[in-house]
Amino acid sequence: MSKLLIKNGTAVFPDKTEHCDLLLENGKIKEIGASVECAGAKVIDAAGLHIFPGLIDIHVHLREPGFEYKEDIASGSAAAVAGGFTQICCMPNTDPVCDNAAVVGYIVARAKEVGLCKVHPIGAITKGEKGESLAEMGKMKDAGAVAVSDDGRPVSDARMMRLAMEYASDFGMICLSHCEDKSLVDGGVVNEGYNSTLAGLKGIPRAAEEVMIAREIILAETLGKHVHICHVSTKGGVQLLREAKARGVAVTAETCPHYFALTDDVILGYDANTKVNPPIREAEDVAAIKEGLKDGTLDCIVTDHAPHHRDEKSVEYNLAAFGISGIETSFSLAYTELVKGGVLTLERLAKRMSGAPAKILGLAGGVLAVGAPADLMIADLGEKYTIDSGKFRSKGKNTPFDGREVYGRVKYTIVDGNIKFEA
Amino acid sequence: MLGKDLLGLYDASAVDILQILDTAVGMKKLLTQNLKKLPHLQGRTVTTLFYENSTRTRCSFELAAKYLGAGTVNISSSSSSVQKGETLIDTGYTLDAMKNDVIVIRHPMGGAPHLLARHVKASVVNGGDGMNEHPTQALLDFYTMREKFGSFKGLKVAILGDIKHSRVAKSNLFGLTKLGAEVSIYAPATLMPQGIGRLGAKVARSREEALAGANVVMGLRIQLERQQGGLFPSLSEYSKYYGVSEEHLKFADKDCIVMHPGPVNRGVELTSGVIDAPNSKITEQVLNGVAVRMALLFLLVKNRKGGEANE
Prior knowledge:
The structure holds two protein chains of two kinds.
Chain A: E1 3-12, E2 17-25, E3 28-33, E4 42-45, E5 50-53, E6 55-60, H1 73-82, E7 85-90, H2 101-114, E8 118-123, H3 137-143, E9 147-148, H4 158-170, E10 175-177, H5 182-185, E11 190-191, H6 194-199, E12 203-204, H7 206-223, E13 227-229, H8 235-246, E14 251-255, H9 257-261, H10 283-295, E15 300-301, H11 330-339, H12 346-361, E16 376-386, E17 405-415, E18 418-422
Parallel strand pairs in A: 1-4, 1-5, 6-7, 7-8, 8-9, 10-13, 11-12, 13-14, 14-15
Antiparallel strand pairs in A: 1-2, 2-3, 5-16, 16-17, 17-18
Helix pairs in contact in A: 2-3, 4-7, 7-8, 8-10
Chain B: H1 14-32, E1 45-50, H2 56-67, E2 71-76, H3 88-97, E3 102-107, H4 112-117, E4 123-129, H5 135-149, E5 156-160, H6 167-179, E6 182-186, E7 202-203, H7 207-211, E8 216-219, H8 224-228, H9 235-242, H10 246-249, E9 257-259, H11 272-275, H12 282-303
Parallel strand pairs in B: 1-2, 1-3, 3-4, 5-6, 5-8, 6-7, 8-9
Helix pairs in contact in B: 1-5, 1-12, 2-12, 5-6, 5-12
C-alpha cells in the first residue's frame, strides 16, 4: 500500500486550524504532526493550501440507472471529486426507482467499478416512490443503503410517513424528508412573492414547505424518532427547526448553496437554470438560512446536485426541469459566502460540509484525526476564479452561477489515501 | 428608444409609450378615412404565432399589418401542443430562416416571448404571455384614456377583477405609473397577487374605495376555470360582491369612462347597463387597438438596424 505525505499545509480540525503534516497509510490517517517525515512516501507540498476532511454530500442525484443522458455514476463521481467530495449519497428517483436491494446493489457495484468517491445509495421510502406502501428497507440496508427518502415525491400521507419513521428506525436508518405539500404548490415554479408577480410566473408559497416541516417535526417528536429535513429554504422553516431543536426533538436539517448565495431576483430574466425546487427565496430567507447555519439549526450543507440535459432547460420556464447542477460549485460558494462573508469559521464550514453529514447518516470519516479514513480535500482558499459550467465534469451544465467570481479552489481530493482529483 | 422587440411595459420608458401613442394618432386618422392600403410595411412579413386561443388580438395584429401593406402569416397551435413536438426555440429558428420581420407571439406561459426574442433576428412582439404582460392591450387602453382626458397626470384608474392572473392589469399598472396616473385595484383576496402594492398599485379594501373618484373604470374578464378551480364560489356571488353595476359607478367621477379588454362576461364583471352606457369605450378600444398596433409595427420595423429587413 502506498503512502502519501502531505507537507507544509494548514489543516482544519474540528476545534482548530493549524500548520501540520499528515501521513496517510493503508487508507487511514497514520500520523499528524508539526513535522512528519516518511521515506518512500509520495509527497504533496501543500504550502499555502488548506486541508479539510473530505467533503460529504448526503443529497445528490446521479441519475443512473435510467437517466444516463443527464448524468451517470461515472460522470457524477468525477464531478464530486472535482468538487472536493469524497463521499456522496444518491437519491432514489432513478428509473427503475431505487426501492429494492437489486438497484441499491447495482449502484454500489457500479460506483466501486468507477472507483472515484464513495457512493452510498439512499433507498426509497415507499415502493416506486408512490407513497402507498413501504419499500423493503431492511433488504436495501443490507445491500448498502444508508437512509431512505422519497425525495422529490414527498410522502403526502401522514400515516405512511409515521410508519416509515418507525420502521426505518428498526434498521438504524432515518427518513430524509423533502418537505413539499403539493396541493399548496399547485403548479407553481418560483417563490411566491414580489418577483413571481413581477415576472408573471406562478408562485410556490413558503407554506408549501413549512407545513410539511411542521408535520415531520410533530411526527418525530411524538414517535421519538429521528427525522432529517432536506434542503430548507425559508425563514419560517429555520424557525420551526430552531424551536423543535430547543425542545429536544431529534431533527436534523440541511440547506444548499443556492439558498444562501442567491435571491429570487435571478428569475426575472426567465433563465430556467434558476428553476429549482424548493425555489430560490428572498433576502430575508437568505439571512435566516445563514443564521441557521451559524447557530447550528441547519446542521449541514448539501448540494441537491440535480443535473439535467441542456434541452430540459432550453424551454419555457414553466416547462423546464427543476434542479441545479451544484456539486462542483458548492465548496467555493460556501467558502465565499459563509467564511469570507463572516458567517462561519473554517472549522464550522468543515463541520457543515463533512463532520455533521457523516454523523447524521453514521458514515465513517468527516474529521481529520489519526486513525480516521484518509479522505481529504485540499484547497487553495486564496485562489479567485470564475465559475464556468463549460468546464464541469458533470454532464449537467445547469447552473445559475455561471460567470460568478468565487474564492477557494479545490486542488486535491484524496479518497482512502489515493489521489482521485488533482487540479 | 424602442429596441428590437416589445416584450413588456415594465422595461419600456414613458417616452417609448408616448412615441407609440403619438404615432397611433396618425394611424387612427388614416383608418377613420378608410385608408387601408398603406405603404409603410410593404415588402415586410409579420407572423402571428399564437399558442392560445384569441380572436380579437390576433385579428387586430393581422389587420394592422395588412393595412400597412405587410404580408401576414398566422400560426395557431393549441396550448397542449406546447408540451410536445417542436420547441419554441426551434420554431423561432424556422420562422427566422423564412425571413420574417416581426413575430407576434401569444403564449400561456410567462417569459415565452423573452425566450423567443433571445433566439431570433426578427422583432418579437408580446401578444400576451401567461400572467406576465400584454403590452399592446395596455397601449390601446392608454390611447383610449388619452383620447378622452388628454393627459395621464393625476388620472385615477380603477381596475377591478382577477388581478392575480391578469397580464392586462400588470401592463396597465407598469405603464400608467410611469405616465403619472394613479392605479387602484380591487379583487377577491384569492385573485390578488402578492407584492402588487410594491409594484405601484393602490390596493383598495372595498369596491367603493377602488371606484372613489375614478376617471377610468376597467373591468377584467373572469375566466370560468378560476371558479372551477375554487378561487371563488360562484359567478353570481362574484358579480354581487366584486362586479360593477350602474349603482357602483356612482362612486366614480361623474365624467368617467368604462373600459374592458374583452371579451366581456355580461352580468359578471360588468352589468349590461354599464357595458352599453354612453360612457363605455369598449368598442372604441377595439378600433384603437388596430391603430396602436399599426403604430407599433411601423416603429419596430423602422427601428430595425438601418431599416433593413431580416437578412
